[in-house]
Fold this sequence. Notes:
single chain, 406 residues, mainly alpha, Endonuclease III, domain 1, two-stranded antiparallel sheet, 2 strands, 48% helix, nuclease, class I DNA-(apurinic or apyrimidinic site) endonuclease activity, iron, Endouclease-III_FeS-bd_BS
Amino acid sequence: MSSPYFMNSNSVITRNKVQKTDCTHATSLRFGLTKRRRKIDPVSSVAVKVEEEEAGISVQGPFSAPISNGDCPEHLFQDAPPPKSETDIAPLSSHSRRRRQLKVEYDKDESVKPVKTELWEPPDWKKQLGFIREMRSGRDAPVDNMGAEKCYDTEAPTHVRRYQVLVSLMLSSQTKDQVTAAAMQKLRAHGCTVENILATDDETLGKLIYPVGFWRTKVKYLKLTSAMLQKDFGGDIPDSVEGLVRLPGVGPKMAHLAMDIAWDKVSGIGVDTHVHRISNRLGWLRKPTKNPEETRKALEEWLPRELWSEINWLLVGFGQQICQPVNPLCSMCLNQHSCPSAFKNSPTKRPKAEFPGSPSPTSSFKTKTEHKQESTVTDESTKTEPLFTPVSPNTQKRKAKRKLKH
């Protein structure tokens, strides 16, 4: 045996006796490792002790006890690898004993499906919408004949038609469709183009659009908008909601309606006072809204997109004829049994007429019946009226005294 670990013979304590052996494998290996460890990288006594224990465990692994000289067969050591040199043994450090970080991964359970959150929608809205379509089947409301779709010149160039649609929408704010249609008719006769509006002075333009609501403010908006269209868009109107809202006097409702009518693109729901009022009355909103812009956002959350273009003219005409802001005709509405606001918005007193001496069209039947009832009451009172009036005793005494004097 040429290995240095088996050259020296040392005493080894066995189960039976102490004997000399040249095959002190465990002791020599432990001594050699400890000696080289001290030469290469001295460490603390605790580390040396740990290394000695590890070496002892590795050596005595396959043997239950050290083997004596006579019991060591040579074939057990013929296949053993040669001992490593000092340069091959790497120094043991505290970093080598650290545990490696394990990455924990979980298998996805395909049986568990993600929970789907259902969108909110009002109850019976499809049934109510069907009834509104039935009530609007005649298309005889003012919006059907005098709305923004009917106010532009069909024979004008394309960009001029789009400009006239935008002008009619700007004039329709806080104004009835009849007044807007009359103002647009005068503007078209004057020449409703960007160039003509800019060439017209404010006083003449005010007379043309009078008596639309806030006509003085709208004259300024028309001039500013026309100048911006001529400068930035070549006389045409923008083809996006963002561009339209930048124009003076143009709000979200006008922008969405202009996109639908002028550009034939559905970008959102055009919500005016009628759509805002009726949506709250029918309970089509998760919670009541305070202005048309809040109503638009709430409707777009659940209403299918294919209905966004139709819902405006449906509810506007429905609000002009039946679901009026004052004294709604709930008895004539087909949704009176499903509407949560049915027979609750009618005022207790009859509204005043718009012009003195002219009754409102909705209450003409009531006024006729009231006049008949009053006439019958006066006739009965005249029939039952007594022939003489009672006289107080004081007046009787005065009359008696006058007779005595004469």
